[in-house]
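Exercise 3.2. Students should predict the tertiary structure of the chain below and write it as structure tokens, then compare their answer with the key that follows.

Predict this chain's 3D structure.
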Amino acid sequence: MNEVLPSTAHTEATPATGWPGIVSDWSSDKQAFKEVSWGKAMMWVFLLSDTFVFGSFLIAYMTVRMSTTVPWPNPSEVFALEIAGHHLPLILIAIMTFVLISSSGTMAMAVNFGYRRDRRKTAALLLLTALLGAAFVGMQAFEWSKLISEGVRPWENPWGAAQFGSSFFMITGFHGTHVTIGVIFLIIIARKVWRGDFDDGRRGFFTSRRGRYEIVEITGLYWHFVDLVWVFIFALFYLW
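Answer key:
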């Protein structure tokens, strides 16, 4: 008697459940992004979410400025400095912008030398980028202290619309926090590069695998994003 075996030609695999199902789902995502490392993909996700936050702040600022009936302060007067008896509008803002944009160039060079495994030049350029970022934050702190001493508060200012103070401190403060965090990470990564952690595969944050210089590029993505956001803040807040 011939036995009839059940056909398996059209049998569908049963989806895994529980922990095996979670592992399977994450594995499929990893295959979908197999050409991109997890670190770089997650940084892009973070930057996209941060874009929405900064975009919301800037849209709110434009809405408030266009809707208020009280005259908005003139940025050329508010952010002017008296140097050697000369009234220089936006001179500090121009220097801050030049410093931050220059740091984007040093960051790009650091990424280039990182992939060449030139750790001395990579570390030096990372530290130079951090120094420029720290200089930017220092000038921003000077700008804040100057405006506070002149009577600017989040709820009022002596030059017109009360919303000016809240918009200024919220937007520039949020961006300055991003720059400060970037400076801290740049110093941490520069130290690891200088010690040779990426060459030796020393275990620790971001250095569990030998030759893992990609973290320099990931840090660069964050830093370029911070610089790009400042361009929009500069255009909308200081030039408008």
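Discussion points: The chain is about 70% helix and 5% strand. The radius of gyration is 25 Å.
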